[in-house]
Amino acid sequence: MCPLSRWSVASGSKRQGSPNQWEGEREKNCSLTLKCLTSEETGVTALAFNCPELVTKFNKAVRAAEENPLMAGLEEVEVTRVDKGKMAHVSQYVATRDNCCILDERFGSYCPTTCGIADFLSTYQNKIDKDLLTLEDTLSEVENKTTEVKELIKAIQVSYNPEEPKKPSMIESATQNSKKMVEEIMKYEALILTHDSTIRFLQEIYNSNNQKILNLKQKVTQLEAKCQEPCRDTVQIYDTTGKDCQDIANKGAKQSGLYFIKPLQAKQQFLVYCEIDGTGNGWTVLQKRLDGSVDFKKNWIQYKEGFGHLSPTGTTEFWLGNEKIHLISTQSPIPYVLRVQLEDWNGRTSTADYAMFKVGPEIDKYRLTYAYFIGGDAGNALDGFDFGDDPSDKFFTSHNGMQFSTWDNDNDKFEGNCAEQDGSGWWMNKCHAGHLNGVYYQGGTYSKASTPNGYDNGIIWATWKSRWYSMKKTTMKIIPFNRLSIGEGQQYHLGGAKQVRPEHHVEIEDD
């Protein structure tokens, strides 16, 4: 550091090379130098006036030193204007906080001057130069980026057309797609949960079924063990067989029940209920109505094969089957007698017998034929009944010679379908006077209003009860003609017939 007290002024034409020097202006070969004296030097240096302008330049230099902000804290500066041959003198000065406005400990105990500042800056110049270089590089990079941005702005300005319709925002489109994807994900997650529940439910069913299979296998094992023993039917079927029930009775059977018979033209035996009485008569039962437990509205095949249930006690409803009835009734040169047994809802019973009963083959639609009415207090309904409204009533309600009809195989004489209207199968004419396969009406009495079509469709026998009265029980059974008089207590006369009681006033069916 060079305090003011150590400055001297010199002149000369030679530039000083010391780093502690400050050079003034130079004109031609004349120069003014302010020199910092070393500690050994004292006093002031005389001015050599090689150039006439030095006095003025010195005065300017001193004033500049006085006015320099680094020198603003000087209390006293003694300046003697220099004339030719005279010297300038600067009084000694000591820097304090009171007289130095920028006193800094880095400059020691001296107030910094231009020379001290130069020395300070030279110390940090390298670092500053590096910082300046870095700053220049940064500015250059910024300039390059600025150029790129300008080029990009130009490209945007070229591509931008304010008249073009506004394009959808990519952000909005991406947001909508994202929402849709989230919704789809939520939907599939819900579906997965539902499937998980379904899988658990099916797994439970699977486990349950596995358990049931195990139980069934155990049951099969038990049944197989039982089947190692001879099987016995819980329903008693007698061992005696024959071509019909009378043949079985002739072989010594005395109990009514279930037997196998095989008519002469039959390909295999079949089960029937035989009604065997104490005199050895064996009736083959064709039909039973007892309680309405069996619906008799069946199709052609069912009436052909038979339906209902056969029981050892004869207490179930059934139709034996047209094919079986045909095989039994046509197998022997000895004709059969048909007996119709009726019971009303008061417990009263009656019968009607017909000689030489036969049912033809299926090719002839199981046609019904008989020779004549033998007798019985139920009257001869199969020969028709005069209902009193038309002379043709009896003719069109006769059943002898009629083919069998069902709702799906109509063979009657009516322009409609009697079997479909009456809900049954029977040997219909136009339509009937005796009809044992009709609808079972509890209590017996019914009316037009209680029927679907207004026709008499009950279990009727018009020569014993009104056609609006349905029987409680009926049985149709046959026996060889030569067994009829045995044990009956009376001998029927050929052609004999009871007349219907006069109190029966009934209406004819509407055609």
UniProtKB/TrEMBL annotation:
**Molecular function as annotated in GO:** extracellular matrix structural constituent; metal ion binding; protein-macromolecule adaptor activity; signaling receptor binding
Instruction: Keyword check for Transmembrane, yes or no.
Output: no
Gene3D superfamilies cross-referenced by the UniProt entry: 1.20.5.50, Gamma Fibrinogen, chain A, domain 1, Gamma-fibrinogen Carboxyl Terminal Fragment, domain 2
- Any coiled-coil regions, as ranges: 135-226
Recorded GO cellular component terms are: fibrinogen complex
Q: Name the PROSITE patterns on file.
A: FIBRINOGEN_C_1, FIBRINOGEN_C_2
The entry's keywords: Blood coagulation, Calcium, Coiled coil, Disulfide bond, Glycoprotein, Hemostasis, Isopeptide bond, Metal-binding, Phosphoprotein, Secreted, Signal
Q: Where is this region: Disordered?
A: 1-24
Question: Quaternary arrangement and interactors, per the entry?
Answer: Heterohexamer; disulfide linked. Contains 2 sets of 3 non-identical chains (alpha, beta and gamma). The 2 heterotrimers are in head to head conformation with the N-termini in a small central domain.
- The name this protein carries in UniProt is Fibrinogen gamma chain
